[in-house]
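Q: I'm writing up a methods section and want to include an example of the input and output format. Could you take the sequence below and give the corresponding predicted structure tokens, formatted cleanly so I can copy it straight into the document?
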Amino acid sequence: MKTIIIINIHSFVDLITNSSTELFVLDADKSLEVVKDILQEAINLHNKAANTDYKFEDIFDESYIGSADRALEGWNSYYKSDKKEAIIIIGASDNSIPYWMWEFMEEAFGHSTERFHLG
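A: Here is the clean output for your methods example:
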């Protein structure tokens, strides 16, 4: 005997994935070049310790100095920052900033570092 199960569909839902980009907003108390040098050193140390071959451009897109609110335009409307002139660092692509780098950036650049999950 064959069993048939009928399921009435109530609604459809979009598929949710874990692909996302992170955007970091840092105080501009250090120059952009100093921040990039610090990040490069962190990458170099990680490569040596973990036997990896990350390059700056694998992890980060072009960093710049600008308004945090401007960088967040077009993303979730509840994302706000009061930093008018900040160092903006964004991932090169979806999930390109590894978790160890998030931790490093938040620790190295202080409690005022803001991280936004851009979805």
